[in-house]
Task: inverse folding
Protein backbone atom coordinates (compact mmCIF):
# COMPACT_ATOMS: atom_id res chain seq x y z
CA UNK A 1 0.00 0.00 0.00
CA UNK A 2 1.28 3.46 -0.91
CA UNK A 3 -0.90 5.10 1.77
CA UNK A 4 -1.56 8.76 0.94
CA UNK A 5 0.18 10.17 -2.11
CA UNK A 6 0.40 13.80 -3.24
CA UNK A 7 1.53 15.46 -6.44
CA UNK A 8 3.47 17.56 -7.12
CA UNK A 9 6.10 17.57 -4.35
CA UNK A 10 7.27 21.11 -5.16
CA UNK A 11 5.72 23.93 -7.15
CA UNK A 12 6.53 27.56 -7.86
CA UNK A 13 3.73 29.79 -9.15
CA UNK A 14 3.50 33.41 -10.12
CA UNK A 15 0.79 35.56 -8.55
CA UNK A 16 -2.50 35.00 -10.37
CA UNK A 17 -1.66 31.59 -11.78
CA UNK A 18 -3.85 28.60 -11.00
CA UNK A 19 -3.01 25.03 -10.13
CA UNK A 20 -4.48 21.85 -8.71
CA UNK A 21 -2.86 19.76 -5.99
CA UNK A 22 -3.67 16.10 -6.28
CA UNK A 23 -4.15 13.63 -3.44
CA UNK A 24 -4.99 9.93 -3.50
CA UNK A 25 -5.26 7.23 -0.84
CA UNK A 26 -5.41 3.47 -1.23
CA UNK A 27 -6.52 2.62 2.32
CA UNK A 28 -10.26 2.67 1.58
CA UNK A 29 -10.75 5.58 4.00
CA UNK A 30 -14.01 7.50 3.85
CA UNK A 31 -12.74 10.88 5.03
CA UNK A 32 -10.07 13.09 3.49
CA UNK A 33 -8.59 16.45 4.45
CA UNK A 34 -6.46 19.30 3.17
CA UNK A 35 -4.22 21.26 5.55
CA UNK A 36 -1.69 23.99 5.21
CA UNK A 37 1.26 24.36 7.55
CA UNK A 38 3.01 27.66 8.09
CA UNK A 39 5.81 28.51 10.54
CA UNK A 40 4.33 29.45 13.91
CA UNK A 41 0.78 28.68 12.76
CA UNK A 42 0.67 24.92 13.06
CA UNK A 43 -1.57 22.78 10.85
CA UNK A 44 -4.74 24.50 9.73
CA UNK A 45 -7.63 22.73 8.03
CA UNK A 46 -8.58 24.14 4.63
CA UNK A 47 -11.33 21.74 3.50
CA UNK A 48 -12.41 18.26 4.31
CA UNK A 49 -14.60 15.55 2.86
CA UNK A 50 -16.36 13.28 5.32
CA UNK A 51 -17.35 10.88 2.58
CA UNK A 52 -17.50 10.59 -1.19
CA UNK A 53 -19.75 13.29 -2.58
CA UNK A 54 -19.48 15.70 0.36
CA UNK A 55 -17.09 18.55 1.09
CA UNK A 56 -17.04 21.18 3.83
CA UNK A 57 -15.01 24.24 4.69
CA UNK A 58 -12.41 24.14 7.39
CA UNK A 59 -10.68 26.96 9.23
CA UNK A 60 -9.02 28.71 6.25
CA UNK A 61 -11.00 27.99 3.03
CA UNK A 62 -10.74 31.36 1.29
CA UNK A 63 -8.89 31.20 -2.03
CA UNK A 64 -9.29 27.44 -2.38
CA UNK A 65 -11.72 24.97 -3.90
CA UNK A 66 -11.83 21.20 -3.61
CA UNK A 67 -13.21 18.24 -5.48
CA UNK A 68 -13.80 14.77 -4.09
CA UNK A 69 -13.48 12.95 -7.37
CA UNK A 70 -14.19 9.49 -5.95
CA UNK A 71 -13.46 7.65 -2.73
CA UNK A 72 -9.71 7.60 -3.44
CA UNK A 73 -9.05 11.11 -4.72
CA UNK A 74 -9.42 14.58 -3.22
CA UNK A 75 -7.98 17.57 -5.08
CA UNK A 76 -7.29 21.14 -3.96
CA UNK A 77 -7.42 23.98 -6.47
CA UNK A 78 -5.96 27.46 -6.23
CA UNK A 79 -7.80 29.57 -8.80
CA UNK A 80 -5.64 32.70 -8.55
CA UNK A 81 -2.56 32.15 -6.43
CA UNK A 82 -1.40 34.82 -4.00
CA UNK A 83 1.89 35.12 -2.07
CA UNK A 84 -0.09 34.49 1.15
CA UNK A 85 -0.72 30.97 -0.15
CA UNK A 86 2.97 30.12 0.01
CA UNK A 87 2.94 27.17 2.37
CA UNK A 88 3.34 23.43 2.76
CA UNK A 89 0.13 21.60 1.91
CA UNK A 90 -0.71 18.23 3.40
CA UNK A 91 -3.45 15.86 2.46
CA UNK A 92 -4.68 13.33 4.99
CA UNK A 93 -7.23 10.55 5.19
CA UNK A 94 -8.86 8.95 8.18
CA UNK A 95 -10.47 5.80 9.41
CA UNK A 96 -12.36 5.10 12.62
CA UNK A 97 -9.89 2.89 14.46
CA UNK A 98 -10.19 1.41 17.93
CA UNK A 99 -12.46 4.07 19.37
CA UNK A 100 -11.09 7.08 17.54
CA UNK A 101 -10.60 8.55 14.10
CA UNK A 102 -6.96 8.25 13.09
CA UNK A 103 -5.58 10.50 10.38
CA UNK A 104 -2.71 9.58 8.11
CA UNK A 105 -0.80 12.16 6.14
CA UNK A 106 0.71 12.36 2.69
CA UNK A 107 4.26 13.62 2.08
CA UNK A 108 3.19 17.20 1.35
CA UNK A 109 3.47 19.75 -1.44
CA UNK A 110 5.77 22.72 -0.96
CA UNK A 111 4.26 25.66 -2.80
CA UNK A 112 5.90 29.03 -3.37
CA UNK A 113 3.95 31.91 -4.90
CA UNK A 114 6.09 34.80 -6.14
CA UNK B 1 -7.28 31.11 24.42
CA UNK B 2 -6.14 28.62 21.81
CA UNK B 3 -8.14 25.43 21.61
CA UNK B 4 -5.05 23.26 21.87
CA UNK B 5 -1.91 24.58 23.50
CA UNK B 6 1.58 23.20 23.67
CA UNK B 7 4.87 24.67 24.83
CA UNK B 8 6.76 25.49 21.65
CA UNK B 9 10.10 24.56 23.18
CA UNK B 10 12.67 23.70 22.23
CA UNK B 11 12.78 21.03 24.90
CA UNK B 12 16.27 19.64 25.26
CA UNK B 13 16.98 16.37 27.07
CA UNK B 14 20.09 14.18 27.28
CA UNK B 15 20.14 10.80 25.59
CA UNK B 16 18.60 8.13 27.82
CA UNK B 17 16.46 10.57 29.79
CA UNK B 18 12.67 10.81 29.90
CA UNK B 19 11.17 13.51 27.70
CA UNK B 20 7.83 14.88 28.86
CA UNK B 21 5.61 16.74 26.41
CA UNK B 22 2.42 18.44 27.52
CA UNK B 23 -0.75 19.61 25.84
CA UNK B 24 -3.86 21.34 27.19
CA UNK B 25 -7.20 21.77 25.46
CA UNK B 26 -10.13 24.05 26.06
CA UNK B 27 -13.18 22.11 24.85
CA UNK B 28 -14.51 19.75 27.52
CA UNK B 29 -16.40 17.89 24.81
CA UNK B 30 -13.16 16.66 23.28
CA UNK B 31 -13.21 12.92 22.91
CA UNK B 32 -10.00 11.59 21.49
CA UNK B 33 -6.42 12.76 21.49
CA UNK B 34 -3.45 12.11 19.29
CA UNK B 35 0.28 12.60 19.25
CA UNK B 36 2.06 13.05 15.95
CA UNK B 37 5.80 13.21 15.34
CA UNK B 38 7.09 15.43 12.56
CA UNK B 39 10.70 15.39 11.44
CA UNK B 40 12.00 18.53 9.75
CA UNK B 41 10.80 18.67 6.16
CA UNK B 42 8.57 15.63 6.55
CA UNK B 43 4.88 14.99 7.14
CA UNK B 44 3.27 14.28 10.52
CA UNK B 45 3.34 10.64 11.59
CA UNK B 46 0.79 9.25 14.07
CA UNK B 47 2.52 7.70 17.07
CA UNK B 48 -0.17 7.49 19.78
CA UNK B 49 -3.90 7.87 20.22
CA UNK B 50 -5.79 7.89 23.52
CA UNK B 51 -9.41 8.45 24.48
CA UNK B 52 -9.82 7.07 27.99
CA UNK B 53 -8.50 8.64 31.17
CA UNK B 54 -5.25 7.13 32.34
CA UNK B 55 -2.12 5.86 30.68
CA UNK B 56 -1.56 4.08 27.40
CA UNK B 57 1.84 2.57 26.69
CA UNK B 58 3.40 1.60 23.38
CA UNK B 59 7.05 0.68 23.54
CA UNK B 60 9.03 3.67 24.83
CA UNK B 61 6.00 5.96 24.48
CA UNK B 62 3.33 6.56 27.11
CA UNK B 63 0.35 8.83 26.55
CA UNK B 64 -1.46 10.13 29.63
CA UNK B 65 -4.94 11.64 29.57
CA UNK B 66 -6.69 13.58 32.33
CA UNK B 67 -10.05 14.84 31.06
CA UNK B 68 -10.96 16.55 34.35
CA UNK B 69 -7.87 18.74 34.08
CA UNK B 70 -8.05 18.89 30.29
CA UNK B 71 -4.52 17.86 29.57
CA UNK B 72 -2.79 15.12 27.68
CA UNK B 73 0.89 14.32 27.84
CA UNK B 74 3.42 12.17 26.05
CA UNK B 75 6.37 10.57 27.83
CA UNK B 76 9.29 9.22 25.86
CA UNK B 77 11.49 6.91 27.91
CA UNK B 78 15.15 6.25 27.11
CA UNK B 79 15.16 9.17 24.66
CA UNK B 80 17.32 8.73 21.58
CA UNK B 81 18.76 11.34 19.20
CA UNK B 82 16.41 9.87 16.57
CA UNK B 83 13.50 11.12 18.71
CA UNK B 84 14.53 14.70 17.93
CA UNK B 85 11.52 16.12 16.08
CA UNK B 86 8.48 18.33 16.57
CA UNK B 87 5.63 16.64 18.43
CA UNK B 88 2.10 17.72 17.57
CA UNK B 89 -0.85 17.26 19.87
CA UNK B 90 -4.24 16.92 18.15
CA UNK B 91 -7.75 16.78 19.55
CA UNK B 92 -10.98 15.40 18.11
CA UNK B 93 -14.04 17.17 19.46
CA UNK B 94 -17.47 15.64 19.98
CA UNK B 95 -19.71 15.55 16.90
CA UNK B 96 -16.91 16.73 14.61
CA UNK B 97 -16.41 13.43 12.81
CA UNK B 98 -12.74 12.95 12.06
CA UNK B 99 -11.77 16.63 12.18
CA UNK B 100 -8.75 17.39 14.33
CA UNK B 101 -7.56 20.57 16.00
CA UNK B 102 -3.78 20.73 16.21
CA UNK B 103 -1.52 22.45 18.68
CA UNK B 104 1.50 24.42 17.51
CA UNK B 105 3.87 21.59 18.31
CA UNK B 106 6.79 21.17 20.71
CA UNK B 107 10.29 20.83 19.33
CA UNK B 108 12.28 18.13 21.10
CA UNK B 109 16.05 17.88 20.91
CA UNK B 110 17.79 14.82 22.35
CA UNK B 111 21.49 15.45 22.90
CA UNK B 112 23.96 12.51 22.66
Result:
Amino acid sequence: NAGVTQTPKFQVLKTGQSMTLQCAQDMNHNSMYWYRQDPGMGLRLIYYSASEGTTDKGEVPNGYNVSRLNKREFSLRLESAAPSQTSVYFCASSVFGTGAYEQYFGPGTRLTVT
Amino acid sequence: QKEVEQNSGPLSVPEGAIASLNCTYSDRGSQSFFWYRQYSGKSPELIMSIYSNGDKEDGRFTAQLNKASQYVSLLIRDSQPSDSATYLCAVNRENQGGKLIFGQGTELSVKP
Q: What stands out?
A: The mean pLDDT of chain A is 93.
